[in-house]
Amino acid sequence: MRGPVFLHKRICQSVGALLAFTLLYQSLGAPIDHATITEVVNDVKILDPQSLQGSPAKTSALFKTPEIMQTGAESRSEMVAEDQTITRVGADTLFSFEPKERTINLRQGSILFQSPSGKGGGVIRTESATASVLGTTIIVVATRDGGFKILVLEGTAQVTMANGSRRIVHGGQLVVIKAGATQPGPVLNFLLSDEVATSRLVNGFQRRLPSWPKIQKTILKQNQEITLGEFKAPTVVVGGVPDPNIRINQIQGLHVNATPTPPPPASTPRPTPRPTPRGRVG
């Protein structure tokens, strides 16, 4: 873990390139200024915003503004707000709440956001790009160039840029917002089953997401599309799969032109040889 001096420099440098995730719930009530930490895995620290001195995060404790949460390598945390909205924080992530705008400031790393109403979303901003997002279960990842990408695990999301250009993104699809872009990138497919299997934000916690049945239903639907040849092969590998077409071929092979394997032919019993009589000796 790097020291407070580096973190202070990192935070100051990232103010202009801040990735803001503004929570837009079904009802815009009181600002979200805290959430209960429900799980901590490995190295998770709560930093004082002034001194940047950190203390270990603890389950059942409140994470509140203006504190900063920092996760190390192979580390993650989960928080639940009073309205049961779940925020999961991935490894190597740095973020904080901004209650005035109901905002999560994601300076680096990744988060998973799941709203029980299915209408959660937000506004994501960098120094050169802004997009509003309305979705259900989504993952937002800050990219090194100052942009971000949004992966939809189930349901439908709408990504809208400041100039009004928009993309509709369904479960199993993602869109990338590049630094300096004035419109979202193209909607791309990704293999949802592989992403779910490898994502610590999805399966790296003790309990399943409340939207888990919907995610599984979306995986089944995508696999059926692959079987019928209606699924466009992924152009972006997500989840560390070296060749996504291998998995597509495996899924197709399970269903397409499936012919029962005939049983092996019965073998003809071979007669048991009789011992050759030996003559007398002597």
Look at the structure and give the CATH class of the domain at 4-190.
Mainly Beta
What is the total tally of β strands?
Answer: 19
CATH topology-level fold name of the domain at 4-190: Jelly Rolls
Helix and strand content put the structural class at alpha+beta
Q: Any idea what the radius of gyration is?
A: 26 Å
Q: What spatial form do the alpha-carbon principal axes imply? A: globular
Walk across the major sheet and give the strand order.
4-3-6-9-10-1-12-13-16-17
Overall mean pLDDT score?
75
Order of helices and strands: HEEEEEEEEEEEEEEEEEEEHHHH
What can you tell me about this protein's structure?
The protein is an alpha+beta fold and 282 residues long. The chain has a domain at 4-190: Jelly Rolls. The chain is built from 5 helices and 19 strands. The chain has helices at 4-13, 192-198, 200-203, 212-227, 244-255, and strands at residues 20-22, 34-41, 44-47, 54-56, 62-64, 68-71, 76-80, 86-89, 94-98, 103-108, 110-114, 121-125, 130-134, 137-142, 148-154, 156-161, 166-170, 173-177, 188-189. A hairpin with a 6-residue loop joins strand 3 (44-47) and strand 4. The radius of gyration is 26 Å and the shape is globular.
